[in-house]
Every structure is written in C-alpha cells, then in structure tokens.
Amino acid sequence: MAGTPGTVRPGGRTARVRTAVLEAAGDALVEHGFHGLDLADVARRANVGKTTVYRRWSTVTGLVADLLEDMAEQSVARTDTGNLSGDLRANARLVVETLTDPRQGALFKAVIAAATCDERTTRALNRFYATRIEEWAPCVDAAVTRGELQAGTDAREVIRAVSAPLYYRLLASGDPLDEATADRAAAAAEAAARAGAYVVDGPGAR
Dihedrals φ, ψ of 183, to 5°? Predict the structure, then answer.
C-alpha cells in the first residue's frame, strides 16, 4: 500500500533530494512562516525540479509533516547520567539549547503557529513531541526502578512537566531562556515527582 506523501523512508539519490528539500523548507519557514511556504520556492531553493517536489510531498502540509518527522529523527538522543536529577537537567538544557538556537527556535515557532490552524500539521507536531517524550521517559522509569520515585509514577507526565514552562517562555511570556531557567524547570519537575504528584497507579496514587 502506498504511504502518505513524504513518509516513505528513501535511500540514495532520493535521500539526498529529501535532505535538500527539507533544509530548504526549514529555511523558507524561518523566513516567511507557514502561510508564506510555497512548494515551487522550496524546489528552487533546493535546486530540485518542481515536479519532484509536487510528486513526493503534494502539499505544503505534507512537506511540513515530513520536516517534523525528520526533526524528530535528528534530535539528540537521551542522556543517561545515572540519576534522576542529572537526567531531567540534561533534558531541560537540551530543550533550552534547541529553543534558543537562532534557526531551530524560529523554526519551532513557525511550525507551532502553523499547527494552530492546520489539522495535519497539528498531528505531525503531536507525533514529533510524542517521539521526544518516548525517548526521555525511560529515565523516569529507571528512577522508579532505583527507588528514587514511587511506583506508578507517570514518566511521560514528568517529562512534559520539565519542558512545559520552557515552551511557555518561548511562546507566551517572552521571559529569558537560559541554563539557569532549564535547571529550575528540571528541579521543579523532580520535586513534584518525588512528592508523588505524577503517581497514577499504586499505593501513592491520588
């Protein structure tokens, strides 16, 4: 069965074309936002034939969905420091590093803005964050195994709690995003987790 445009994993020349097109799409998104994204312009930037881009991705939303999938694939792997404090701090610092990067931060803002008005982009963004949460959730499960957290702690909720205040600063308050902010977000999520705030099953469930 044929896959959704932009979702088949390519190889060889096709992989090089995909890389060039996604790089160009990211540049265009940063410069013009979702509503200024145009497949013909992306093809020109990537030095790829328009027909190739239209045949493979079909629509702007298909292209953005594939860009998000590629971003998830290229994201830095989870850090394993051996303790909950170190793992959550590493996660928070990675989020801040990404959001304050001149290109990546602008790209995230553009994609999130697009997701507010386009259902397919919303689904792609949801998949992107689900992938990142699944990557980091095992550090919380490991903390439960080591006895640092109560059994039944929802690992995914803990990871969400780390990044939520950081995205709030990026998208809403405009307050500074730096390493100290990352460390405070990690410490707050850890304190809540140790207090049992995210226990959903077991003796400590609320």
Answer: -65, -35
Distance of CA 111 to the CA centre of its chain: 10
CATH node for 12-58: 1.10.10.60
Give the number of other Cβ atoms within 10 Å of residue 28's Cβ.
Answer: 23
Report the alpha-carbon distance of residue 182 to residue 180 in Å, rounded.
5
- Which tokens is 4 given? 């959704």
Query: Which positions ≥6 away from 178 have C-beta within 8 Å?
Result: 96, 100
Contact 124, 71 (CB under 8 A): no
CA–CA separation, 192 and 198 (whole Å)? 7
| pLDDT tens sequence across 121-176 | 898 899 899 999 999 999 999 999 999 999 999 999 999 999 999 999 999 999 99
Q: What is the DSSP letter of 138?
A: H
Look at the block and give the residue holding tokens 């308050």.
Answer: 173
Stated pTM of the model: 0.82
Express each pLDDT in 60-82 by its tens digit. 988 988 888 888 788 778 889 99
Three-state SS string over 38-55 comes to CHHHHHHHHCCCHHHHHH
CB atoms within 10 A of CB 138: 15
Fold (CATH) for 77-194 = Tetracycline Repressor; domain 2 (1.10.357)
